[in-house]
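I am hoping you can look over what I have pasted underneath with an eye to the fold:
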Amino acid sequence: MDQEFWDDQYRERGQRWSGRVNGGLRVEVAGMQPGRALDIGCGEGADAIWLANNGWQVTAIDISTVALERARAAAGTESRIDWQYADPRVSPPPRASFDLVSAQYFPIQREPEHATLRGLLDAVANGGILLVVSHLITGPPPADWQGPDPGEFYQPPEIAAHLDDHWSIEVNESRPRVDLPVDNPHHEDLVLRARRLA
């Protein structure tokens, strides 16, 4: 899934997502001291805007220039967001730089050396939080499914298995999706929240 794929996905409709913060992010970040956040696969910007409105300094990255244009427009004059075109498969984020690394429904592709995943883990500063939320997938995709194979991507429990004793896993569970959008087939999420200790 490259830039062309995602640009086409966004061009297919005027607004691809709801424009509201993802419920899993809102629930898990509540009560955290704001700091520096990395929003991976920021899409049209709802999560980044919510984080900024709650005091975070946000670096929001996406591979789609169409999505980033919409995100910038939605944010208006919000100065606490740095919108960046970036592909973490090619350019890993800076190491130990973020108090929160958030991947909300972001497809992290499996790789033999886990390079992209390791780059995202390395971006979390000491004491910082990794937050990954994915759809709970049960069974094969529908017969008419034309998207990528869900089996090509890491799920939160697999990511948890890659964390060593420098991490504390605070949440690693499936749960009903928070603020379920209307007509959305995904009713349950997998949630991983882990803190880097050193």
Q: What stands out?
A: The CA atoms of residues 62 and 85 lie 5 Å apart. The mean pLDDT is 88. Helices lie at 3-11, 23-29, 46-53, 65-75, 115-122, 156-161. The first helix runs from residue 3 to 11.
